[in-house]
Amino acid sequence: MAKTVKQAYRCAECGWQTSKWVGRCGECQAWGTVDVAGAPKPARVVTAGPVTAPARPIGEVDVKAAQTTATGLDELDRVLGGGLVPGAVMLLAGEPGIGKSTLLLEVAALHAARGPVLYVTGEESAEQVRLRADRVDAIAPKLYIAAETDLAAVLGQVDSVAPELLVVDSIQTIGSAEIDGAPGGVSQVREVAANLIRVAKARGITTVVVGHVTKDGSIAGPRVLEHLVDVVLYFDGDRHSRLRMIRAVKNRYGPTDELGCFDLSESGIVGLPDPSGLFLTRQEKPAPGTCVTVTLEGRRPLVAEVQSLVAPSPLANPRRMTSGLDSSRVAMMLAVLQRRCGIKLHDRDVYTATVGGVRLSEPSVDLAVALAVTGAANDLALPPDMVAFGEVGLAGEVRGVQAAKRRMSEASRLGYRRAIVPAGSLDPAKRATGTIVTDEGMQVMETDAVWSALDIAFASRGPGA
């Protein structure tokens, strides 16, 4: 008898094959990309054809057409590297209700003062967008709104309006009858994005596409979408806070290590050029269990406060709760404090949190967490004018961090006069610990071990502190 040939399945993203259907690719971990594999096609030989434009020496290429145009929001321009580039395609992703549509509506209204802007909404009606525009004062004569979910209709709107800026909110709602699958599927998203990119490059239209995110925070849809676009932006923040932050994880026209901060309210969205004050409590009397640190978001130093509460636990397994901090690094710090510094925490509940909804994931926050937990465990308060930063290792050593001088300058600007930093922060060739006074009038105390930092911090409180 002839053998029955098993049906093969192939991932549309990476080409991984399997003998049975699965919902998630075993190679690239993409969801919904595994489908029935067709018969292998022989490679086609493509002959040379006419060129679109003759090749030129790179020095003769005119760069004026690729100059950036400011959006009117300084914080967004900081992240983009100056502003919008003609023909660039940007992908803005974020959780539902975080403020993506409000931000883009504000950008569209500001850009409409210079040229026509087309805002295509596939999730709301034109009337709903108008209500939001009235609330945030984003009414402009050259701002056009179209509620479309068909790709052909969207391209028709582009032909009729001829915009300088195109906003599509969102790409998961746009589909085409000529492509198999429902809108939001892998094939639909890929083809819709390819057509929008083709039109944007051919006509020099700056295009911003809104993308959904999955429950783990990654952009929904095929991974190739992030490779096709020029800029990938993440818009995030705490739902219970007005602070919103935007980061660029891919940028062909600017840096990818910048951070933009915004204040989202009912009247619109406003940039925050100096957001450090949002992450501090500014209490008149020092409280045990608090420590101010300086973290680096991209190239911007941010002064933030770490708080801790240590209480006796009635449970066999004490609680370890974190908010705004990396739980694994906090657990490591608790182990270091107990093993290297002799601070007993095995029978106590430990709570750690940040102020203002900011999330601190940089390792330089380790030293501030150690000081805050130690102060809470021993009911000791740090001086109100002190900051601390540094990475702590498992052996209890305090490691250096980048841009230490920039961090101290930011702390000095906000009125802090004492700092505990890793040894060698001011002079990398000098690893000795001690007290150094900087040019800004800040008293800098260098340390190379966490137990030394605890002695310096709580011995420097002074009488009555």
TrEMBL record:
Residues 349-465 are annotated as: Lon-protease-like. The middle region has homology to RecA with ATPase motifs including the RadA KNRFG motif, while the C-terminus is homologous to Lon protease. PANTHER family: DNA REPAIR PROTEIN RADA (PTHR32472), DNA REPAIR PROTEIN RADA-LIKE PROTEIN (PTHR32472:SF10). It comes from Actinoallomurus bryophytorum. One of its GO terms (biological process) is recombinational repair. InterPro entries: AAA+_ATPase, DNA_repair_RadA, P-loop_NTPase, RecA_ATP-bd, Ribosomal_Su5_D2-typ_SF, Ribsml_uS5_D2-typ_fold_subgr, Rubredoxin_2. SUPFAM superfamilies: P-loop containing nucleoside triphosphate hydrolases (SSF52540), Ribosomal protein S5 domain 2-like (SSF54211). Residues 65-213 form the RecA family profile domain. A motif (RadA KNRFG motif) lies at residues 250-254. GO terms for cellular component: cytosol. Belongs to the RecA family. RadA subfamily. DNA-dependent ATPase involved in processing of recombination intermediates, plays a role in repairing DNA breaks. Stimulates the branch migration of RecA-mediated strand transfer reactions, allowing the 3' invading strand to extend heteroduplex DNA faster. Binds ssDNA in the presence of ADP but not other nucleotides, has ATPase activity that is stimulated by ssDNA and various branched DNA structures, but inhibited by SSB. Does not have RecA's homology-searching function. Plays a role in repairing double-strand DNA breaks, probably involving stabilizing or processing branched DNA or blocked replication forks. Keywords: ATP-binding, DNA damage, DNA repair, DNA-binding, Hydrolase, Metal-binding, Nucleotide-binding, Stress response, Zinc, Zinc-finger. This is DNA repair protein RadA. SMART domains: AAA. ATP binds at G94, E95, P96, G97, I98, G99, K100, S101. It comes from the Bacteria. GO terms for molecular function: ATP binding; ATP-dependent DNA damage sensor activity; damaged DNA binding; hydrolase activity; zinc ion binding.
